[in-house]
Design brief:
Distance between the termini: 21 Å
Order of helices and strands: HEEHEHEHEEHEEEHHEHEHEEHEHEEHE
CATH class of the largest domain: Alpha Beta
Number of domains: 3
Number of strands: 17
Largest sheet: 6 strands, mixed
Shape: elongated
Strand content: 25-35%
Radius of gyration: 21 Å
Structural class: alpha+beta
Length: 323
């Protein structure tokens, strides 16, 4: 049984360095992969959006904390789904919502348009660090690089250091990687602790985000051929994600919610999205939690005649590690 509540720092020691320059080292995804392959022939290969060390990478390693994995970086979420679709043996880790930024609407649609299934979820606190080359101090810094959302989330801290000009970059871990590989003195990255460690940067400040209640929920995805092998057993399934449309009639959504309530199903999320080409009609993404799998299945059978195009996106175990 995988412990989904373990912390990355306790279970994922960075791989040995592949490159050294001065007094810092740079780690690469290939080194991590090769190290895992040497110790086990059954390495899970997981696609992520972002470069090695990004929050998707960290979430994947925390979720599979007692297993060996190789992460496959992708430039975009669309690219990630393309990669998943090309190889049924791959898994995917994808952010779906954040407690500050809200739902990632594009990812809902990418998931629906694919044939991937949700086999798990992971909730991770997003905590940013200020990291620079070893030997650098905050007084040495003139520029801080990161994803615009990360810069915004750390704005109060950064405004207290007017000597640091905020420069937007593609992502958090990519900023750390650039500083390490190009030996950019005077530059710092706002990134996760895992990224800073992976690229040999020195952490000058931890937990610099303004709102400490910053969590992202990630979905674990698999091809239907693989999903049967990696999803939890029926007795451990207590959560489901579904999507459907409704006829444009009075009370259509209310009827569905009433039936779900009758079967003691808890709605943890409901997200509506407009249907292109059908003005004022919407598609509904709903997350359900339940104590009885059999009653949950009965509820799905009961609401199906009231909906159009109902699809179960996945059945899995709810993540319990939120603090």
């Amino acid at each position: 049984m995988i412990d989904r509540n373990n912390n990355l720092s306790n279970h994922n020691i960075p791989a040995p360095p592949t490159e050294a320059s001065g007094n810092f080292v740079i780690y690469t995804p290939m080194t991590i992969s090769d190290q895992h392959k040497k110790s086990s022939g059954n390495v899970k290969r997981v696609t992520i959006q972002g470069v090695a060390g990004c929050y998707h990478d960290a979430a994947a390693r925390e979720y599979f904390s007692d297993e060996e994995i190789e992460t496959i970086p992708c430039d975009s979420f669309q690219s990630m789904f393309d990669t998943l679709g090309s190889d049924a043996s791959l898994l995917g880790v994808m952010a779906i919502e954040n407690t500050i930024a809200g739902s990632l609407l594009q990812n809902h649609e990418l998931l629906r348009a694919s044939n991937m299934q949700i086999v798990g979820e992971y909730k991770m606190r997003i905590s940013h660090t200020l990291a620079a080359l070893p030997g650098q101090t905050i007084d040495d810094l003139t520029e801080v690089n990161s994803h615009p959302m990360a810069l915004l989330q750390c704005e109060q801290f950064l405004l207290r250091h007017p000597n640091m000009k905020m420069i937007e970059a593609f992502d958090t871990a990519g900023s750390a990687k650039d500083i390490a590989e190009k030996r950019l003195t005077g530059h710092a990255a706002v990134c996760g602790e895992y990224a800073a460690t992976l690229y040999g940067l020195n952490i000058l400040e931890r937990s610099i985000e303004t709102n400490k209640r910053n969590f992202t929920r990630f979905l674990i995805l698999a091809d239907p051929l693989l999903a049967a092998e990696v999803r939890p057993s029926e007795k451990d399934i207590d959560k489901s994600s579904i999507v459907f449309t409704l006829p444009h009639t009075k009370g259509a959504l209310s009827k569905v919610l009433t039936i779900l309530s009758f079967y003691d199903i808890n709605l943890t999320k409901i997200q509506s999205m407009p249907i292109l080409g059908r003005e004022w009609e919407y598609r509904f993404y709903i997350d359900l939690e339940f104590d009885s799998y059999s009653r949950y299945r009965q509820s799905i059978d009961a609401v199906r005649p009231l909906t159009n195009d109902l699809r179960v996106l996945g059945e899995y175990t709810a993540c319990k590690n939120e603090v």
